[in-house]
From TrEMBL:
<protein>
    <submittedName>
        <fullName>Radical SAM protein</fullName>
    </submittedName>
</protein>
Length: 202
């Protein structure tokens, strides 16, 4: 059996690839074009690694070599929120390195409960993909399995994240229009959550 890429690096950040499952099928997603990011290793998993397997991979690394750990692979990491928390607890037991999650913000809809409060104390930072400024535009871009209720679910998650996580950001990808970016910025200002405009990965 060939080895799976559970941990990978981009710059001085260590990334965790927990799952390939995602409730969205975004039109701009890099997964449509390639098997990796930044010419790295194949991020398609043969199966989902257990929390214990992920922790074993961490034991092979020196966390002092990195500025942060980022839960972001070829799927939505909060689909596996219990495993993410278990791994974060291990990281916390050996290091005070910053722990960040890149998320589509739909975890409450996936699990049917308030998930942001579960992350309190284990996650330092979360980047939430806002993607669009309205539920219709969001649905068109993300093709979420939750349809039109996805956008409000995302905003509710973001509000709860702000109560439970120190650093919360929104992001949009620059493949949307300038008007959509500006309207997204208005939402971020209303919720007092900073907005980052990301370059689309070519």
């Amino acid at each position: 059996m060939k080895s799976m890429t559970i941990l990978y690096t981009i710059g001085d950040s260590l990334y965790v690839n927990l799952t390939n499952r995602c409730p969205c099928n975004c039109t701009f997603c890099v997964r449509h074009e390639k098997d990796s990011v930044c010419e790295g290793e194949n991020l398609w998993l043969e199966r989902e690694p257990s929390a214990e397997e992920v922790i074993e991979e961490f034991k092979k690394r020196n966390l002092e070599d990195y500025k942060e750990v980022v839960f972001c692979g070829y799927g939505e990491p909060l689909v596996r929120i219990d495993e993410l928390i278990e791994v974060s607890k291990y990281i916390r037991s050996v290091s005070d390195i910053k722990i960040r999650v890149n998320s589509n913000g739909l975890a409450d809809l996936v699990h049917g409960k308030n998930t942001a409060e579960m992350l309190k104390g284990w996650v330092d930072s979360i980047s939430i993909s806002l993607n669009a400024p309205s539920k219709e535009e969001y649905n068109e871009i993300t093709k979420s399995q939750f349809g039109l209720k996805a956008f409000d679910g995302l905003l509710n998650f973001a509000k709860e994240a702000k109560k439970n996580i120190e650093d919360v950001q929104f992001s949009v990808v620059d493949c949307i229009t300038e008007d959509q970016i500006e309207r997204s910025r208005k939402i971020s200002e209303e919720l007092q959550i900073p907005l980052r405009v990301r370059k689309m990965i070519e």
